[in-house]
Specification:
single chain, 278 residues, mainly alpha, 12 helices, membrane, transmembrane helix, transmembrane
Length: 278
């Protein structure tokens, strides 16, 4: 994988960890996740006029991605309600690239080299190591996390293919970002009432705007990288976000880090090095 692609994916991973920290710090994680999605859409709007429309063949992928993104945010909220973040996040983010690596040959006809496969597995193993430090958990949390890993793998495939056939990965990303917040806020309003949703938006709109801009930039960089390198390796490298999340958890949230976090950090960094050398 070229060095410039690696650096941009790593920067995207930093942005991913940052917007997740914004959601974690919020008082209402479901509505904050919807705000992040809406912030991404608002950030995308000014640029749409300057970019070409995605090719017609990409629009079904944009629609499918919106539905999968809606399912992703719903499962994130449900999993965090059921279990500790130290269990849920590693399972979701660690299993997804393993699923992609195991199936990309069949779905995309991408045959990973031995080094790329080793790097992918190493990064995923590092992320999954973090699950060992979880103090709380339940079978429901595990099931929801694994289900969301399947959703993550699914939208990674959908968007990886969609970005490639769209003719412009940036344009695809920005158009793809518009529909999920409509679905998320419609669902929230139907379940909790429009007044509660509007009140939360008025108080926390700035969180959504900042986090949304980081979210859309992070995912856009990943989709661009998928046009330059195998989807499975990009998906694995993106999970280095957990390293940035580790730093944020210690410096911002003052969380105590167990030995498993440091072991996982070393394993993830090693996986990144293997991908660079592959």
């Amino acid at each position: 994988m070229p060095l410039d692609v690696i650096l941009l994916v790593l920067f995207g991973a930093l942005l991913h960890a940052t917007w997740n920290a914004i959601v974690k710090a919020g008082s209402d994680k479901s509505l904050d996740a919807a705000l992040i999605s809406a912030g991404g859409a608002v950030s995308a709007l000014p640029f749409l006029a300057f970019l070409p429309l995605p090719h017609a063949s990409a629009w079904p992928f944009i629609g499918a991605s919106a539905i999968l993104q809606f399912a992703y945010f719903q499962l994130v909220a449900a999993a965090y309600r059921a279990g500790d973040i130290g269990l849920v996040y590693p399972l979701m983010r660690g299993c997804a690239p393993l699923l992609i690596a195991a199936t990309s040959g069949f779905i995309l006809q991408e045959n990973l080299s031995g080094g790329a496969l080793a790097g992918t597995i190493t990064i995923s193993a590092g992320v999954l190591t973090l699950a060992l430090e979880a103090r709380r958990g339940s079978s429901r949390a595990v099931v929801l996390s694994l289900a969301n890993a399947c959703v993550i793998a699914s939208y990674t495939y959908v968007d990886g293919i969609g970005a490639r056939i769209s003719g412009n990965a940036v344009s695809y990303t920005l158009w793809m970002s518009l529909l999920p917040p409509v679905l998320l806020f419609s669902w929230a309003a139907s379940q909790r009432g429009a007044f509660a949703v509007v009140r939360h938006v008025r108080r926390n709109w700035w969180r959504g705007l900042i986090g949304g801009a980081g979210s859309i930039a992070s995912y856009g960089l990943a989709l661009w990288a998928m046009t330059k390198a195998p989807v499975a390796t990009v998906a694995a490298l993106r999970e280095t976000a957990i390293l940035f999340a580790l730093v944020i958890s210690i410096t911002v949230f003052k969380e105590k880090a167990s030995i498993w976090r440091y072991i996982a950090g070393v394993v993830i960094a090693l996986g990144g090095l293997i991908l660079k050398l592959a």
